[in-house]
């Protein structure tokens, strides 16, 4: 992304899109009973509350009545239908892992089979987005957490910590390309959840081959444990590689969330919060609900002079419903340089 003179002025930035991740599948209900919805009605109401607080994108996971993350697509259909009926304009983004909650005490957290994950393209009603990981990767979500982050929670137990330290993301090239094709055929946007710059480069190569003709709507996930760490140098390196036509959200975990969101807000990027990412206030004096976290970002945006996007505006910013016909259009719309033509020398560029 090119930061020209005036790029930090709010009038030259997109309105702020706030993504809420309020379902926190890594936690058990006893970890934060005041803010972990379990019944279907409570899960639907949580979406409504986040929307009313200012979030226009909802990262969706589902729980069963026993509190564990659901792996039944029928439950996702039920939740999606309930949310659509209550807040029809909210962008619904289903987590492509479906759920990574361990099956039992001490069991390793596993993603579902490739065939089952492909079934996300068959959800009814269809979500606006499904998140996708690129390149098989370690996802040790507890590696950069400190003991205070997990104190008194299920992640603080030896069994819970071990389960979430051993997570991996199966996202090989054949599965990824097929999954993007199926989602696009159903009119569902791919939202890229990227761990580092090498995964961004893989996405660019797919676009250059014409197997990924979609807008580059992405999140930089800086959670450590196989992903980038949330420091200024990693952030600057990643942002510099992202083309100007992309839409970039920043994500991290625990007490890193607020500082990173502050940087995103100042830079004209977009933000994500919620108990899936963090459950604490910055001084750890108490736990902080997803709605409180959204309200905090809304206050900060006002102080920065950056308006929060309405749901209609967020849909336009996110290019919901937009797909491209070929590699040439995809590269141009996303802001990448064009492919090299046979015999072409030097750097490639667009000629007016």
UniProtKB/TrEMBL annotation:
Q: Tell me the Pfam families matching this sequence.
A: BKACE
InterPro entries per record: Aldolase_TIM, BKACE
Keyword field contains Chaperone:
no
List the cofactors: Zn(2+)
Could you tell me the keywords of this UniProt record? Answer: Metal-binding, Transferase, Zinc
Q: PANTHER family annotated for this entry? A: 3-KETO-5-AMINOHEXANOATE CLEAVAGE ENZYME, 3-KETO-5-AMINOHEXANOATE CLEAVAGE ENZYME-RELATED
What is the protein name stated in its UniProt record? 3-keto-5-aminohexanoate cleavage protein
């Amino acid at each position: 992304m090119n930061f020209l003179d005036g790029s930090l002025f709010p009038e030259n930035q997109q309105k702020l899109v706030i993504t809420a991740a309020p379902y926190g599948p890594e936690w058990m209900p006893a970890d934060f009973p005041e803010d972990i919805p379990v019944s279907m009605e409570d899960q639907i109401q949580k979406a409504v509350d986040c929307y009313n607080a200012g979030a226009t994108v909802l990262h969706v996971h589902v729980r069963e009545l026993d509190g564990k993350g659901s792996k039944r697509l029928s439950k996702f259909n039920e939740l999606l239908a309930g949310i659509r009926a209550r807040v029809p304009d909210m962008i619904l983004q289903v987590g492509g892992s479906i759920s990574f909650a361990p099956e039992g005490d001490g069991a390793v957290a596993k993603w579902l089979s490739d065939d089952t994950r492909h079934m996300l393209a068959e959800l009814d009603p269809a979500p606006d987005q499904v998140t996708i990981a690129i390149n098989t990767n370690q996802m040790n979500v507890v590696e950069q957490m400190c003991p205070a982050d997990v104190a008194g929670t299920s992640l603080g137990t030896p069994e819970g910590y071990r389960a979430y330290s051993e997570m991996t993301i199966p996202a090989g090239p054949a599965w990824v390309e097929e999954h993007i094709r199926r989602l696009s055929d159903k009119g569902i946007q791919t939202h890229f959840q990227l761990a580092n710059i090498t995964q961004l480069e893989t996405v660019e190569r797919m676009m250059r081959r014409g197997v990924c003709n979609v807008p580059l709507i992405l999140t930089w996930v800086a959670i450590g444990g196989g992903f980038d760490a949330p420091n200024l140098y990693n952030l600057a390196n990643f942002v510099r590689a992202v083309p100007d036509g992309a839409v970039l959200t920043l994500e991290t975990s625990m007490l890193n969330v607020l500082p990173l969101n502050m940087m995103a807000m100042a830079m004209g990027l977009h933000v994500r919060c919620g108990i899936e990412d963090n459950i604490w206030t910055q001084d750890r004096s108490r736990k902080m609900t997803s709605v409180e976290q959204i309200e905090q970002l809304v206050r900060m945006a006002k102080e920065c002079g950056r308006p929060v996007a309405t749901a209609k505006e967020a849909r336009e910013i996110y290019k919901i419903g937009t797909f491209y016909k070929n590699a040439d259009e995809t590269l141009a719309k996303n802001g990448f340089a064009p492919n090299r033509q046979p015999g072409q020398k030097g750097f490639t560029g667009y000629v007016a």
